[in-house]
From TrEMBL:
PANTHER family reported in the protein's UniProt record: GLYCOSYL HYDROLASE, LP05116P
A Pfam family matched in the record: Glyco_hydro_1
Class of this enzyme: hydrolase
Reactions accelerated catalytically: Hydrolysis of terminal, non-reducing beta-D-glucosyl residues with release of beta-D-glucose
Protein name: Beta-glucosidase
EC code: 3.2.1.21
Organism: Streptomyces flavofungini
Length: 464
């Protein structure tokens, strides 16, 4: 049953509305590209909850026209997708796949014809297997291979791409893929995973200069962020929460925005990276905006004497970590078990503005969304409605946020959770590939029409 809800407050006229997806999660057509670390990872038993792979996923490569029509009819102005590196360069470097590039060429044309701005992300975790076998992101060379790949993509579609994203969530890719081993490539290096973070940042910086050389003038990066709440006021809990905050929030934004690592990270990397200061100059090359993927806050306390691995929100955490995540009680949860705390988005945006002040680039929310089952997804409507109001409060407080992208257009391959977690505004029946817009799709469509209706409501907060 639909509930009556007040319309959203008015956002600025030029606010960019969009939806997000990523290549490995929707494309399928795995036989038409080179293998990635995710193909290798999901082939192993026990890595994905329901034992599935993304070989077919949403079959988007064959159905992109239908998917673009869904985006157009939704009424958003932009579509954030990712380019699969192994679809463009099956061996990661060297020979280019014309077939792969053609696909993105056609997708971009289709979007332009539909009046939707294409916003490609160059890396959303699907490292070519050949690059992994040569050392992957533990190797500095990968940063250079990534920049070369960026140049190949830009040469083909750059004439029609108004806005670029280099990396998606280097923090999650480092933590889940290389420190804890819950995602591909499945390494469990704990703090020895730090070079992976550095090489992604270096790859970002090198890619920015490759894109600029090709004429791009609107480039950002998408990072996951969320407030970290200490479990209590005790010094040990606060210290553990600070460390977690460094790893999730500051390890990437500090070097990108102010050109230096938080002290604990600089100490470790300084001993390993020959010219850290030189690299930081590359990493902090100016970007045009900074993207935030927001899902939920995290509560963290001092490590407990846990002799064995512990389960937390679907993650198996090894023993011996210097912090321990704690449940956040008192809020509704998504079907993933993540707490729904819209105010935490306002808190996060204000905290970023306070921390970086004048150096903070304009922001975009590049992902926000939730997993729930069913077509009549009232919980998703209330999640999105709550977070958009929270975002609007940050705008009113003068934080410069230029757009908002829902994760995700379609239900898709949710990494280690397989197909069981559904994040889409559009339902996908994987047996038939039938797409069915959910209640949330209709809600967002109506809200966007109201946003764009001439003269209705106030014009939104002035840009501060
Ligand atoms: C994003 O990452 C990805 O970019 C995208 O590919 C993915 O499909 C989407 O989000 C949904 O997962 O255990 O309560 O502390 C998500 C980043 C990191 C957000 C882990 C939730 C754990 C919540 N996520 N975090 S909790």
């Amino acid at each position: 049953m639909a509930t009556t809800r007040a319309p959203l407050p008015r956002f600025p006229r030029d606010f960019l509305w969009g939806v997000s997806t990523s290549a490995h999660q929707i494309e399928g057509a795995a036989d038409q590209r080179g293998p990635s670390v995710w193909d290798a990872f999901t082939a192993l038993a026990g890595t994905v909850k329901d034992g599935t792979t993304a070989a077919v996923a949403c079959d988007h490569v064959h159905r992109y026209r239908d998917d673009v029509a869904l985006i157009r009819d939704l009424g958003v102005g932009a579509y954030r997708f990712s380019v699969s590196w192994p679809r463009v360069l099956p061996h990661g470097t060297g020979a280019v796949s014309e077939r792969g590039l053609d696909f993105y060429d056609r997708l971009v044309d289709e979007l332009c014809a539909a009046g939707v701005r294409p916003v490609p992300t160059l890396f959303h975790w699907d490292t070519p297997l050949a690059v992994e076998e040569a050392g992957g992101w533990l190797s500095r060379d990968t940063a250079h291979r990534f920049a070369e790949y960026a140049a190949v993509v830009a040469a083909r579609i750059g004439d029609r791409v108004p806005k670029w994203i280099t990396l998606n969530e280097p923090a999650e890719h480092t933590l889940l893929g290389h420190a804890l081993g819950q995602h591909a490539p499945g390494r469990q290096l704990l703090f020895d995973a730090l070079p992976v973070a550095h090489h992604q940042l270096l790859g970002h910086g090198l890619a920015v200069s490759a894109l600029r050389a090709g004429g791009a003038d609107d480039i950002g990066v998408a990072n996951s962020h969320g407030p970290t709440w200490p479990a209590s006021d005790d010094a040990a809990d606060r210290e553990a929460a600070d460390l977690y905050d460094v790893l999730l929030n500051r390890m990437f934004s500090d070097p990108l925005i102010v050109g230096r690592y938080p002290e604990v990270i600089a100490e470790i990397l300084g001993a390993e990276v020959p010219d850290l200061d030189g690299d930081l100059k590359v990493i902090s090359a100016p970007i045009d905006w900074y993207g935030i993927n927001f899902y939920q806050p995290t509560k963290v306390g001092a490590p407990r004497a846990e002799p064995t691995p512990t389960e937390f929100s679907g993650l198996t955490l090894p023993s011996g970590l210097p912090f321990s995540p704690r449940p956040i009680d008192g809020y509704p949860t998504t079907s993933f078990g993540w707490p729904v705390v819209p105010d935490a988005l306002t808190e996060l945006l204000l905290a970023l503005r306070d921390r970086y002040a004048d150096r903070l680039p304009p922001l975009l929310i590049t992902e926000n969304g939730c997993s729930y089952d069913g077509l009549d997804d009232q919980e998703r409507i209330s999640y999105l409605d709550g977070h958009l109001r929270a975002l609007h409060r940050a705008l009113e407080a003068g934080v410069d946020v230029r757009g908002y992208f829902v994760w995700s257009l379609l239900d898709n391959f949710e990494w280690a959770a397989g197909y069981a977690q559904r994040f889409g505004l559009v339902h996908v029946d994987y047996a038939t590939q039938r797409r069915t817009p959910k209640a949330s799709y209709g809600w967002l469509r109506r809200e966007l029409l109201a946003q764009h209706a001439p003269g209705a409501g106030d014009p939104g907060p002035a840009r501060g």
